[in-house]
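Workshop exercise sheet. Pairs work together: one partner reads the sequence aloud, the other fills in the structure field after running the prediction. Swap roles for the next sheet.
Pair: D.N. / O.F.
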Amino acid sequence: MSYLYNLIFYNPLLNTLVVLYQTAAFGDLGVAIILLTILVRLVLFPVFQRTTRDQMVMQKIQPQLKKIQEDHRGDREKQSQATLAVWREHKVNPFSSFFLMILQVFILIALYQIFLGLNKTDALAGLYSFVSKPENINPNFLGLINLYERNIVIVVLAAIAQYFQGRFSLIKPKPGQEVSAAQKMNERMMWMFTGLTIVILWGLPSAAGLYWLTTSIFSVGQQIIIRKQLQKDELGGIRKKTD
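Structure field:
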């Protein structure tokens, strides 16, 4: 298991970070981390795109699902059939987030292990033979922030970005529509994850916080794009019905 983890996650991410540090980042570790984060998100963009869309659509169809539960109360078979029909109609897979969650956990663990170990003597032991080993890695970001140490500014910015990531993922109920229990839960989760961001990053080097900040900002942009696409699809559906 350890061999596969290093082969698939740790070593590729470490080598990519070092290559970026020595080339595109011009010896700035912070810039290298930002570029690595963007690269990871671009590679996984289709997975993130699908999962984020499914999460947003699931929020939109909650009233329909609630009505199904009320209409077929006591008949689990009819509930399941009607629920599956709604999922198919909206082309949504409520279980798509599980794969992404597992993938993200492994990536996060690998990156945090890399960030925590960069200042150790054997930090670059996992470099491939064709990747040149830098004499040393300068931990300063833009000459201002030591990424081996905790930085309160990075922690606060990461928490704010996490808040907006959660905020943009919420679907507001239509005028006159009752706020569902699921929507209330999602809002509570948004605040919980914001607080959790501070708790987690408080004891970590700011390199981890910079990764968290960058990926949250990327997610916000992605959610804005998906939201606009959903609105466009919804308008297109309305026009077809009126034609």
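Discussion prompt: Residues 237-242 have pLDDT under 50 and may be disordered. What would you look at next?
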